[in-house]
UniProtKB/TrEMBL annotation:
This is DUF1294 domain-containing protein. It comes from Coprococcus aceti. The chain crosses the membrane at residues 6-24, 36-56, 68-86, 107-125, 137-161, 168-191. The lineage of its organism: Bacteria, Bacillati, Bacillota, Clostridia, Lachnospirales. The keyword Transmembrane applies. Keywords: Membrane, Transmembrane, Transmembrane helix. InterPro entries: DUF1294.
């Protein structure tokens, strides 16, 4: 078997096991050293195993595990997109012509614009409800909208409404989601 495949299997098993241990420890205490180690494992290629462990061991989204989840999912998407582009793309120069994709496939531009506007409005509504003490929009929904294409609207909502700027899973997570979307778009441009 190829050494890369063996390495990826081992690092994903390690990531899944350590994330399961971290999920069990989080119920008692927060342990930052394990979270840092898991971040390193995600970057090293263990993000898919960690996502499987999220689904099996730690389904509840909380403030203590949200940053690790956002980071792991973004790293996983970036790694998979780069790997697929590396394997499927013919040898040659890389193209950075994002706008050409938006011109050729106009629906993508309209989709990103619509999701960004909805996400921006959701940040405004959540800020208003935070001030008035009403029902809040869940963190997972706001991050999910950013992940679904509304990262620009989320960034604008954070800045304009000064909302969620002190939470690391938003102040670091939303720009990371935007970077992930740019890398994903770059890979799509080079596969088309």
């Amino acid at each position: 078997m190829d050494k890369l495949i063996i390495y990826l299997i081992c690092i994903n098993i390690l990531g899944a096991v350590l994330d399961g241990v971290t999920a069990a420890r989080r119920r008692r205490t927060s342990h930052k050293a394990l979270s840092v180690l898991l971040g390193i494992i995600a970057i090293a290629g263990g993000a898919p195993g960690m996502i499987i462990a999220f689904a099996l061991c730690d389904r509840t989204a909380s403030k203590t595990n949200m940053m690790l989840r956002v980071f792991t999912v973004c790293v996983c998407v970036i790694e998979l997109a780069v790997f697929m582009t590396w394997k499927l793309r013919p040898v040659g120069k890389w193209s950075f012509a994002f706008w050409d994709v938006f011109v050729e496939y106009r629906w993508t531009l309209w989709f990103v614009a619509a999701v960004s506007v909805v996400t921006f409005v959701m940040f405004g509504i959540d800020k208003y409800r935070a001030i008035k003490g009403g029902y809040r929009i869940p963190i997972a929904v706001l991050l999910g909208m950013a992940f679904a294409g509304g990262s620009i609207g989320a960034l604008l909502g954070m800045v304009v409404f000064r909302h969620k700027i002190r939470k690391n899973y938003f102040s670091v997570g939303v720009p990371l989601i935007l970077v992930m979307q740019v890398v994903l778009m770059m890979c799509v441009v080079n596969l088309l």
